[in-house]
Amino acid sequence: MDAIPIRPALPECTGCDRCSLSKLCLPLALNTPDMPKLEAVVKRDAPYERGRKVFEQNGAFSSCYVVRSGAVKTSMASERGDEKILGFYLPGEIFGLDGVRGSHSCTAVALERSSICEIPFPTLEGLARELPDLQHHLFKLMSREITGAEELGMLLSKNTADERIVSLLLTLSSRHARRKLSPTSFRLPMPRGDIANFLGLAVETVSRVFTRLQKQELIRLNGRQVELLELTALQNQLKQAARPDEACPGYANASR
Question: Where does the signal sequence lie (predicted)?
Fold first, then answer.
């Protein structure tokens, strides 16, 4: 008889002022007396089970969202129906701002059982006009979305599979550090197929690179649990890759 998988426990649904993610989310732009105004507009629905859509590509835009627990991926479908993964969102991160022009340009799906806060954008926009600090923070978030798209383009233009995967691991490391969690030991919320899609690689290539990084004793993998054994070495590997004139002979060819 197959074992019944244990679903991850979700955090208790608390107010913004008591949420452990308040220093990463919209409340960081507010003074304590203004917190109830934001609290009044936030919707907290039942948990999203793995695979449930938060919103769909071309769907009408009405809200932005914050991950409280779990993880969410965004993707875009081509006219032929091919899926291209655009990004992954972790607790404390805001998504859905792609739809401010009227409709969503992508689909958002829960990668695992997730708790998500929904914030109706028209109400948030009105609140932002009343609270300049919140408005400034919203502009910063929108700018971050644009910057993120540009950084993804740069990531996919890198010459080697190793560089792309190391970049992803280091990005996840820094995002966990922002939440005051371990930057060197964390769980990958996405399967290897999603990693391959996001980075423009074959699944087999992702597996080979992970194996190579383990043999180099730079990382340790146990299922989706990853440990960065040599964080500085991984960072230096990317710095060296950015200076091809100083790169070790044969590095590029070995990493494809």
Answer: none
